[in-house]
Amino acid sequence: MPEVTTAAKIFTCNQSRDLAEKIAKAYGAKLGKVITSTYSDGEFQPSFEESVRGSRVFIIGSTHPGADHLMELLLMLDAAKRASARHITAVIPYYGWARQDRKDKPRVPIAAKLVAKMLETAGATRIITMDLHADQIQGFFEKPVDHLFASTVFLPYLRSLNLENLTIASPDMGGSKRAYAYSKTMESDVVICYKQRAKANVISHMELIGNVEGRNVVLVDDMVDTAGTLTKAADVMMERGALSVRAICTHPVLSGEAYERIERSKLLELIVTDSIPLKKESKKIRVVTCADLFADVMNRVHNNRSISSNFIM
């Protein structure tokens, strides 16, 4: 007999509650009830307060540091598996630990692969995520991965700006594919930044490949951490004659002195999604929600409908 499609159940980890509430509202459902008990030493235990037996369960949780965020997601996946949920989808707006996607020197881990195996072992039967740091991370999973593009939510905003003489820029060589995809859609020029690092998060030198004089530049990247690269690129571009510099970054990690650097920089605006909650407000940071994108894909997955339209840049 064909499987009967019943209503899906949506739950959230604590770190993604604000986004999960928006996703649930857009989906047309209420968040399931979960309580978390915490021991005096910091150990915690999430508990589903309703039956999930035989259900399709969506568990929403970004895995940005600290490690408790990843641990909470793993515990909830395990709880759903042990409660006999039929399908368990981990909805991970920001897939953390993804910068460690290869061995770039001897005797280091491949954390992105390790996290993938942990998620599957915990019980995830499907992964929905957005703008992975490296596309090949999908290959670390044996379960289906739906890798969404944040361009779905950024491009309408970018078009609304009606920028003349638009140039799309990548802050490094690794992001050139993303920059070319945006430029193809927007029918604009492309500029690539070439940078050399003294060490992690410290740039020693930066050059531009391309011309920005008299152009309105939009930098695109998958994440912004310390904002060192973005602010350095913005300053260099303004020195080279750019009319304005904005940045589109999917995941606002924003650690260290990131907020201070952004405020001091020549960046006109930083546009991000709510995949990670902002630590504080900033007049230069605009948040565009990704809730509708995730809600639509979750609905399509639950009803066994195609989601290929969400993969088009």
TrEMBL record:
<dbReference type="Pfam" id="PF13793">
    <property type="entry name" value="Pribosyltran_N"/>
</dbReference>
<keyword id="KW-0808">Transferase</keyword>
<keyword id="KW-0479">Metal-binding</keyword>
<dbReference type="GO" id="GO:0000287">
    <property type="term" value="F:magnesium ion binding"/>
</dbReference>
<keyword id="KW-0460">Magnesium</keyword>
<dbReference type="GO" id="GO:0002189">
    <property type="term" value="C:ribose phosphate diphosphokinase complex"/>
</dbReference>
<comment type="pathway">
    <text>Metabolic intermediate biosynthesis; 5-phospho-alpha-D-ribose 1-diphosphate biosynthesis; 5-phospho-alpha-D-ribose 1-diphosphate from D-ribose 5-phosphate (route I): step 1/1.</text>
</comment>
<protein>
    <recommendedName>
        <fullName>Ribose-phosphate pyrophosphokinase</fullName>
        <ecNumber>2.7.6.1</ecNumber>
    </recommendedName>
</protein>
<keyword id="KW-0418">Kinase</keyword>
<dbReference type="GO" id="GO:0016301">
    <property type="term" value="F:kinase activity"/>
</dbReference>
<dbReference type="GO" id="GO:0004749">
    <property type="term" value="F:ribose phosphate diphosphokinase activity"/>
</dbReference>
<dbReference type="GO" id="GO:0005524">
    <property type="term" value="F:ATP binding"/>
</dbReference>
<comment type="function">
    <text>Involved in the biosynthesis of the central metabolite phospho-alpha-D-ribosyl-1-pyrophosphate (PRPP) via the transfer of pyrophosphoryl group from ATP to 1-hydroxyl of ribose-5-phosphate (Rib-5-P).</text>
</comment>
<dbReference type="GO" id="GO:0005737">
    <property type="term" value="C:cytoplasm"/>
</dbReference>
<dbReference type="GO" id="GO:0009156">
    <property type="term" value="P:ribonucleoside monophosphate biosynthetic process"/>
</dbReference>
<dbReference type="GO" id="GO:0006164">
    <property type="term" value="P:purine nucleotide biosynthetic process"/>
</dbReference>
<dbReference type="InterPro" id="IPR000842">
    <property type="entry name" value="PRib_PP_synth_CS"/>
</dbReference>
<dbReference type="Pfam" id="PF14572">
    <property type="entry name" value="Pribosyl_synth"/>
</dbReference>
<keyword id="KW-0545">Nucleotide biosynthesis</keyword>
<feature type="domain" description="Ribose-phosphate pyrophosphokinase N-terminal">
    <location>
        <begin position="9"/>
        <end position="123"/>
    </location>
</feature>
<dbReference type="GO" id="GO:0006015">
    <property type="term" value="P:5-phosphoribose 1-diphosphate biosynthetic process"/>
</dbReference>
<dbReference type="InterPro" id="IPR005946">
    <property type="entry name" value="Rib-P_diPkinase"/>
</dbReference>
<comment type="similarity">
    <text>Belongs to the ribose-phosphate pyrophosphokinase family. Class I subfamily.</text>
</comment>
<dbReference type="InterPro" id="IPR000836">
    <property type="entry name" value="PRTase_dom"/>
</dbReference>
<keyword id="KW-0547">Nucleotide-binding</keyword>
<dbReference type="InterPro" id="IPR029057">
    <property type="entry name" value="PRTase-like"/>
</dbReference>
<keyword id="KW-0067">ATP-binding</keyword>
<dbReference type="InterPro" id="IPR029099">
    <property type="entry name" value="Pribosyltran_N"/>
</dbReference>
